[in-house]
Amino acid sequence: MGSPLPEVVEGWAKALASSPVIAWGATAFIVDQVESVEAPEFTSGRAVFRTVTPVVMKVPRRDENGERVHRQVWRLPREPEWDVYVQSNLRRKAETLGLDSDVTLDEVRCVGAKRSFIVGGSRGGKGKKPGACVEVAVSGPPRTLAALHSWGLGQANSTGMGWIGA
Q1: Is 92 helix (H, G, I), strand (E, B) or coil?
Q2: Are β-strands 21-24 and 27-30 bridged in parallel, bridged antiparallel, or unpaired?
Q3: How far is it, in rounded angstroms, from Cα 65 to Cα 130?
Q4: 112: Cβ–Cβ under 8 A, 6 or more apart, which residues?
Q5: Residue 135 region, left (φ>0) first, then alpha (ψ -120 to 50), else beta?
Q6: What are 9-65's pLDDT values in tens digits?
Q7: What is the CA radius of gyration of the chain?
Q8: Cα(44)–Cα(157) distance, rounded to whole angstroms?
Q9: Which residues, listed in sequence order, are joined to residue 60 by a DSSP beta bridge?
Q10: Residues 119-157: pLDDT tens digits?
């Protein structure tokens, strides 16, 4: 579990420490130990993020005139517009947290195999989400990079997509 908000992590840690078992759908997790892990400091203003779950990005579909159409399309790393939308997503996350949003996706270094996951959601988010694990180089303010490290890359982070390895 992770969050870019330390108070959320603190609350989860307290709740989990008093719970011997966590029921997650049909799976039961036995809680032996709860430990908070701090995000790296990224003092150089540069970071390499490698995800342990696939990154998913949905981008607007465009017609032959370049106009947006209602239906969106899933994009994989190195496909058209993926990098533009990931960078925009990172900046939007920083703004949401009230942090400096001057974040740049410098390079997509490694792309894993395409994987699709079926996820459920209370707001119509149920269905297959295709993505791929990635390693990317990013630059930006150290505090912002630390928060993004804890939030994840791409969309659907709350369903487990785009989690960055410690």
Answers
A1: helix
A2: antiparallel
A3: 27
A4: 54, 132, 133, 134
A5: beta
A6: 788 788 888 888 888 788 888 888 877 778 899 999 999 999 998 998 988 777 777
A7: 17
A8: 26
A9: 72
A10: 665 555 566 788 899 999 999 999 999 999 999 999 988
Q: Which among 116, 117, 120 has a CA at the least distance from the CA of 24?
A: 120
- CA atoms of 61 and 83, how far apart (whole Å): 15
CA distance readout (Å), 47 to 88, 101, 105, 116, 148? 17, 15, 10, 27, 10
Exposed, middle or buried by CB within 10 Å (0-12, 13-18, 19+), for 100?
middle
Q: What is the pTM of this model?
A: 0.79
Structural tokens at position 97? 């947290």
Taking the C-alpha atoms of residue 163 and residue 150, their distance in angstroms, rounded to an integer, is: 8
Which residue do the tokens 């008093």 mark? 18
Return the sign of the alpha-carbon dihedral for residues 78, 84, 85, 89. Answer: positive
Instruction: State both tokens at 80.
Output: 């058209």
